[in-house]
Structures are given as C-alpha cells and as structure tokens.
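Usage

Read records sequentially. Each one opens with the input sequence:
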Amino acid sequence: MKDILQDVVAKTHALGFLTLVKVNSEADTTTIESMAEDRSVILNSTTHNSVSEFNGTFGMPNLDKLALHLKNPEYQKDAKIDVVNADRNGETIPTHIHFENASGDFENDYRFMNKQIIDEKLKSVKFKGAAWNVTFQPSVAAIGRMKLQSAAHAEEPTFNVSTKDGDLVFSFGDQSTHAGTFVFEAGVEGTLAHTWSWPVAQVQAILNLDGDITMSISDQGAMQISVDSGLAKYDYILPAQSK
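and closes with the structure output:
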C-alpha cells in the first residue's frame, strides 16, 4: 500500500496545486479525484488494481502531512503502515492510516476526511469527454524545449497552442510583447482550427511527472495529459482559455 500512497502524493501534492484528494474504492476498482482551487486542472485517476486496504469513499486532506510521514526515515524499513477502519452508523469505513516503525516506539496517525465532507469540499466536475483532434506522446526533448521557451518568457502565465503545416506549435506572448514560438511536436495527425491558451505552470508541472505521458488536445477547448505510472493512470484535464 505504501507504493500507491507515494504514487498518489507524487501525482497530486507534489504538483503544488492539487491539495485535496477524493478516493472511491470498490471491489474491482479504485478511483482518485482532485481539482485545483481555481479549476484550472481536474484530475480523474484509476488504479490498475483495486487497493484492497481502501473501502468506500473518503477524502485525503493535508497531503503535505502524508508526504512527510511517507518520507520519514523511521518508516522506511520494516514499518507497519495500516489502514484503520471503524463502524460509523452501522457501516465500516476507513478512518485513518496508522504509521508505526519496526521497533514500535515511533507512531503517527493520518486522518481521512469522511464521505459527507469530501463530497462537499470536492464536488465532482464531470468531464463529458471531447473529440481529441491531436493526440501524441511528447518527447523528453520537447518538454525540455518548452522549459527553455517558458523561462525566456517568464512573464507570460499562459501559452498558445495551434497547428501549422502539420506541426503542433506552442507560442508565448503576442505582437505587442516579447514573443517566442517553437514546434513542440512535428508531424502530428489532426489539426486545430482554433488557437487556445493554457497555463504554463500547471502544464509544465504535469509534463515533469514520472510515467508514460500522452497529450491530447481538442478544438473544443480542452487538453488532457495522461500519465501512466505503472500503478495508476492519471488523467489531468485542463480547460482552455479562448484567445
């Protein structure tokens, strides 16, 4: 279980803008949802295998605290990390994770948020799907080039996406400012009839995650970056801003 906890923290808390997670676990599947406070990013994730220690729906708040427990050297070898359940209104639900080192003299409890509270705090935003006009797997080189271009235009909070002559083009700024353009992916299938913009910081943070990355862009104004960590597939949906 420690592996999936570390994976979830790395794919949410570590990004800097996903601070609260909703978990729904059933017999065959475990799903994880989150959303940035400004709704710039919506996360829908499904684990490849159901997490047997989880049961029902609950929230994981204070992810910085969970991250500290998972990194604690006291819990790196032969530690006991267990989900604790309790009966609430005739239903058995997970209430917290108990951390205990090998010698039993260093303990911590990380408390979950109950279903009613997490449902209120993280109201699900259902993504109805989109027709993806362009889908590809970005290269390490392309992600590196984006870092260079965004550093050169650090004053720009967003970047523009378009297709030109079969290439996917990212651009920063406009005719009234310092501006820069580069080909992010050459020879893509599909075209974009509109130019949309997306937040630089959020997109770069997601592209920096470990895992197999697939990027999809819709002419309807949506971008999806999927990251498969081997333990779960994380779909980050980013609504666009019209230019």
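Summary fields computed downstream for this record:
- The helical segments are 2-11, 63-71, 115-121, 140-152, 200-207.
- The first helix runs from residue 2 to 11.
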